Amino acid sequence: MASAEAGSLSAEPSQPAEREEHHLAPKSYAAAANEVPDSIISSDPELQDHGAQKEQNPDEAEVNRKDSDTVTNGSNSAGEADVGGIYLNEQNSSGERLTSAKLPEGYDDQLMQTKEHIKRANSGRKSNLVSGRQAGKGWERSAIRWAPLNLPLKRRLQTLVVLIHTLSIAISLSLFFFLCAIPIMWPLLLPYTIYVLLSSAGTSGTLSHRSPMLRSLPIWSLFASYFPARLHRSEILPPTRKYVFGYHPHGIISHGAFGAFATEALGFSQLFPGITNSLLTLDSNFRIPLYRDYALGMGLASVSRESCENILSKGGANGEGMGRAITIVVGGARESLDAQPRSMRLVLKRRKGFVKLAIRTGADLVPVLCFGENELYDQVSARTHPRMHKFQLIVKNVLGFTVPFFHARGVFNYDAGMMPYRRPLNIVVGKPIKVEQKSRPEESYIDAIHSLYVQELERIWEQWKERFADDGTSELEVVE
């Protein structure tokens, strides 16, 4: 009986295999769905209406086609009833049709309720689940900013020269002790060590070890361009006088003073022709093997009173120091403890020894202010760490120098290390203050010259702070 009913459904076979045997094209699902058996149509009123629609004339078919298009566009719900309660026909712009089952009433509301239920369930699970920290989190972004590998060669060389200069004492001592470990070098190192301990080259004032070639090497141009540094003069200094340059502030290592007055990288000889300037440093530095030879070759000398008087009283164009100059970092180790970025605190109120020296030797005083020296390093503040600051002062009083607790950048990063930051240095040389030579100057005269010196420093600051000082830098402050 089943086979008889199947035969009455359609004269054409519906199965793909049977149609292929009769060389018929495959029948689509939509076409098969429209060929509903007559026995089923006679028992279903809705399908009878559907069958009647199939026998409409061409005009009615065209109307129904338009209604079907309206259903496709989703703007006419009545079109759904015309198609029937079982299927929905959709047609695209190319005429292709899709047939799908009609959705039951309330389906959309039920779907939204189901989604809300799933969302609430998931949120409940998240609140009850406690997870540990994510492995590897934080490595995407390092707290230290690393320098890229594709930096220009010039910047690499700048960093190398500044690094060598910063570690010059440590490198000299390391090399010396390395040579001491070689027995064959002992016959040379023993007399050399005795010579270093007994030599007075740093205080004699003859400047016999000074090497103009060493001071003019191209590597010092790399040193100065690292920051970069510039030297500025307020007026020409006649070479028929002698001078005492007072450099401010000390900073941590006084890189600006070294670049301007110990080398020719910034053109000191071009700005001040005929003047031989010597940068002064601690006398103990001339007892360090190998380093003392490097310092003497750069024209450095001891900051002792004997050394200053010898330089300004011997040699020169007239044999009495004419055309010679010395540069003293007046604030010294004490001022280095106040070397904080965006500050300009000068330890100067009670520093009058350099004024007495200038009066006794008849040398004019020349104030020098370096904008940016305090910006090269970050240092532990005395306000936040008073005990550490007190310890530094004790070391300074006992040993004559102190060790600031500072940091800046590294060789391959921008945030941690002992390399100075790349921040501009502008060294401004002020106008000279002429003095009258006196072997025993009165205190009133010393105070008067000292006051003029401070006024010239303040003039330099007021005149050039807007151009050279960083935004937010506090006003010039003279302390102690």
Estimated radius of gyration: 46 Å
Number of helices: 21
State the distance separating the first and last CA atoms: 122 Å
Oligomer category: single chain
- Strand arrangement across the biggest beta sheet: 3-12-9-4-7-5-6
Strand residues, percent = 5-15%
Keywords:
480 residues, alpha/beta, seven-stranded mixed β-sheet, two-stranded antiparallel ribbon, 21 helices, 13 strands, 12% strand, elongated, disordered N terminus
Would you kindly provide a written description of the structure presented here, covering whatever features stand out?
- With 480 residues, the chain is α/β, with parallel strands linked by helices.
- It has helices spanning 2-9, 16-21, 29-34, 38-43, 45-54, 58-72, 78-83, 107-128, 153-166, 168-180, 186-198, 212-215, 219-225, 255-261, 268-271, 291-297, 305-313, 332-336, 353-361, 386-399, 443-468, and strands at 87-91, 97-101, 229-233, 243-248, 276-281, 301-302, 324-329, 345-347, 364-371, 378-379, 406-407, 425-429, 477-479.
- The strands form four sheets. Strands 3-12-9-4-7-5-6 form a seven-stranded mixed β-sheet, sandwiched between helices. The chain has a two-stranded antiparallel sheet with strand order 1-2.
- Strand 5, helix 16 and strand 6 form a beta-alpha-beta unit.
- It is elongated.
- Residues 1-10 and 50-84 have low confidence and may be disordered.
